[in-house]
Amino acid sequence: MISRDFLSVANNLGDSVAFNLESDTMKEPEIIGVGRLVKRHGVPEAEFAIEISDRFQRQGLGTRLLQLLVDIGRQEGLQRIFGLILPENFNMLQIAKKVGFTLTFDRPETVMRAELKLW
Q1: How does 57-92 read in b/e, with b if 16+ C-beta sit within 10 Å?
Q2: pLDDT digit string (tens) for 70-104?
């Protein structure tokens, strides 16, 4: 269990933002997750990516991180956020559904496409 965790901006370059999810329950602070939102050029949408360390999964961190990226997308005036998820990544598919994303199978890429219209 994580007694205290916090998000720190790792990168904000105008067209992308990345967050590290850190825990101070160890002797040294440890990055336990990363979330990234990258704007696509010329269109009001962005692609998300999330990774949570295996031993910290199933604690709600992925959901919190994805919701943060959605909130940032809304603040940035994006119309849509999407992510590509491997079909066997059941946990991430559930997180995307929980946050409100629609899932469709992208046959050419052989991945699931998670998409959320923001307005």
Answers
A1: eeeebbbbbbbbbbebbeeeebebbbbebeeeeeeb
A2: 988 898 889 999 999 999 999 999 999 999 999 99
Structural domain harbouring 73: 5-117
- 110 Cβ contact partners less than 8 Å away, ≥ 6 residues apart: 87
Token pair recorded at residue 21: 């999810």
Q: How many domains does the chain have?
A: 1
For residues 109 and 103, give the distance between their C-alpha atoms in angstroms, rounded to a whole number.
14
Specify the pTM. 0.79
**pLDDT on residue 22:** 61
116: Cβ–Cβ under 8 A, 6 or more apart, which residues?
Answer: 70, 80, 81, 82, 99, 100, 101, 102
CATH number at residue 31: 3.40.630.30
**What is the spatial distance between Cα 88 and Cα 75, in angstroms, rounded to a whole number?**
32
